[in-house]
Amino acid sequence: MIQPYSWTIRFDVAPELVADGFSFNDVRALEMLGRELGHADMSTELAAAVICAPHPVRVVQEQGYGPKHAQFNAQIAECNASIPNSGVVSAALAKAITLLEQVAFVSHESDGTAEVLVDLQTALALVKGEQPISDIMWQPCPE
Q1: What are the contacts of 3-6 at 24+ separation with CB within 8 A?
Q2: How far apart are CA 124 and CA 112, in angstroms?
Q3: Residue 111, helix vs strand vs coil
Q4: Measured between alpha carbons, how far is residue 128 from residues 14, 33, 74, 96, 117 in Å?
Q5: Which tens digits make up the pLDDT trace of 39-50?
Q6: Helices 113-128 & 88-101, crossing angle to 10 degrees?
Q7: What pTM does this model have?
């Protein structure tokens, strides 16, 4: 079987849009790709997965489901179920960082390991949304 071409895509969305109900998941990603490639068969020629997403608690709280809300846990479970691959990349990067930080020679040798550690930390910040990808400053919309 020939391997498909794959993209890892990050989208930043203002909090107001999340509060209004937006949450990115695998189905939404596939539907967006399907709209762009309308001639493709979504069941055999396209696939999409959210590789990293904001923590589900943050999303559902932004949408008005506080910890005491009757649907709080159900909303978190639904969010987790819709993005099963989310966190795989960030977890792997975090484990690699932890492993390298535990190696005694990282700060004493000049073999490039310290530079790799910085690169991994930068990559993790990008994947998790902690490193900016634009100069947009998210501010509440005027009412």
Answers
A1: 4/47
A2: 18
A3: coil
A4: 15, 22, 24, 15, 16
A5: 999 888 999 999
A6: 150
A7: 0.74
